């Protein structure tokens, strides 16, 4: 028998190189996902002033478009099936390519001349530029979500038996860094060059991400060739079984799963869409200079880069996971209701954004480690896919509601109340999770590290 070779992922240099490569691809996706968020005020300028003449409702429709194909055509669920059947290399390459294609369409949308004839869609009358930009964002959204699950599986494949939690924490930090960078530099670039320049830079970043992922594919193939064992094959077989219909039923019958899913829908609907509207909020309500308003918005993602690993460590050592989740949701609720009040000091805006960053770090740091305590290991992949799929409904609907609210109430009171009550619903759901944890003994309040 031929002696088995040393597996390449046993080399710290190799696996950390893989982490940097795939996390870079993910970071580029996160950057592009929010690159147009600080541009709302520019997009709504008349064309003769360099804008596209969009309305707040048009922008709200565009912001929700990133989830359209994932939600209404079930693509997020099918992305999981594609990943399971075709593997990380194929799915990740496809995902990076879709992100680049979608961004290219968005670039076309803001540079082409379409005239002034609106296009009717549902009960919207959208300018052609908004339609094309929404189509591009929808295609990008498919690749964006597909990249996320591909990178997660790559981390498990390369770091199981090694520093998996640390690797995922660094990956999340790099992703949030991409978000923060987009919120910080997009508007200044657009104002000093052209409205399309941030998208052109985004396209270049995504091409870099695609090339990086192709390098990962070469290294991942080497992993296949380096000491594949029977245990590895058994692990792969077990992973495929996660998508059997019977396992889906096991997950669907679990009340804890539904409460965590509902929490995710409400909590992330109160954060992610808010960040897309926050730059204009800073300008219109708090009088912040448009060139630096994006830096105010970037406080939240920048804060999570440092605090999320810290709160995760607290949960690992001391427990109280649901308590941390409840605290984070209540802080988010207080922030949104604070933004709805008739106060216009930029100092208050900074304080609220800092508080939001703490809440945004607290809840996810404790929430995601709770899921494996509720869902059996063999069903975990299916559960995550369904959580992300259902979560996208909120990410699609809330921006459209907020866009229309801002059109009828430009003071942002109504839209902040929408976010506030959404966050309050998340807090109530988290309390329900605590109640069912006591009934079912999931162990969500116990430390993750066993002494």
UniProtKB/TrEMBL annotation:
<dbReference type="InterPro" id="IPR052187">
    <property type="entry name" value="MFSD1"/>
</dbReference>
<keyword id="KW-0813">Transport</keyword>
<dbReference type="GO" id="GO:0022857">
    <property type="term" value="F:transmembrane transporter activity"/>
</dbReference>
<feature type="transmembrane region" description="Helical">
    <location>
        <begin position="295"/>
        <end position="315"/>
    </location>
</feature>
<protein>
    <recommendedName>
        <fullName>Lysosomal dipeptide transporter MFSD1</fullName>
    </recommendedName>
</protein>
<feature type="transmembrane region" description="Helical">
    <location>
        <begin position="199"/>
        <end position="219"/>
    </location>
</feature>
<feature type="domain" description="Major facilitator superfamily (MFS) profile">
    <location>
        <begin position="18"/>
        <end position="441"/>
    </location>
</feature>
<feature type="transmembrane region" description="Helical">
    <location>
        <begin position="375"/>
        <end position="394"/>
    </location>
</feature>
<feature type="transmembrane region" description="Helical">
    <location>
        <begin position="130"/>
        <end position="152"/>
    </location>
</feature>
<dbReference type="InterPro" id="IPR020846">
    <property type="entry name" value="MFS_dom"/>
</dbReference>
<dbReference type="InterPro" id="IPR011701">
    <property type="entry name" value="MFS"/>
</dbReference>
<keyword id="KW-0812">Transmembrane</keyword>
<comment type="subunit">
    <text>Homodimer. Interacts with lysosomal protein GLMP (via lumenal domain); the interaction starts while both proteins are still in the endoplasmic reticulum and is required for stabilization of MFSD1 in lysosomes but has no direct effect on its targeting to lysosomes or transporter activity.</text>
</comment>
<keyword id="KW-1133">Transmembrane helix</keyword>
<dbReference type="GO" id="GO:0005765">
    <property type="term" value="C:lysosomal membrane"/>
</dbReference>
<feature type="transmembrane region" description="Helical">
    <location>
        <begin position="90"/>
        <end position="110"/>
    </location>
</feature>
<feature type="transmembrane region" description="Helical">
    <location>
        <begin position="12"/>
        <end position="32"/>
    </location>
</feature>
<feature type="transmembrane region" description="Helical">
    <location>
        <begin position="347"/>
        <end position="368"/>
    </location>
</feature>
<keyword id="KW-0458">Lysosome</keyword>
<comment type="function">
    <text>Lysosomal dipeptide uniporter that selectively exports lysine, arginine or histidine-containing dipeptides with a net positive charge from the lysosome lumen into the cytosol. Could play a role in a specific type of protein O-glycosylation indirectly regulating macrophages migration and tissue invasion. Also essential for liver homeostasis.</text>
</comment>
<dbReference type="InterPro" id="IPR036259">
    <property type="entry name" value="MFS_trans_sf"/>
</dbReference>
<comment type="similarity">
    <text>Belongs to the major facilitator superfamily.</text>
</comment>
<feature type="transmembrane region" description="Helical">
    <location>
        <begin position="322"/>
        <end position="341"/>
    </location>
</feature>
<keyword id="KW-0472">Membrane</keyword>
<feature type="transmembrane region" description="Helical">
    <location>
        <begin position="164"/>
        <end position="187"/>
    </location>
</feature>
<dbReference type="Pfam" id="PF07690">
    <property type="entry name" value="MFS_1"/>
</dbReference>
<feature type="transmembrane region" description="Helical">
    <location>
        <begin position="414"/>
        <end position="436"/>
    </location>
</feature>
<feature type="transmembrane region" description="Helical">
    <location>
        <begin position="256"/>
        <end position="275"/>
    </location>
</feature>
<feature type="transmembrane region" description="Helical">
    <location>
        <begin position="61"/>
        <end position="83"/>
    </location>
</feature>
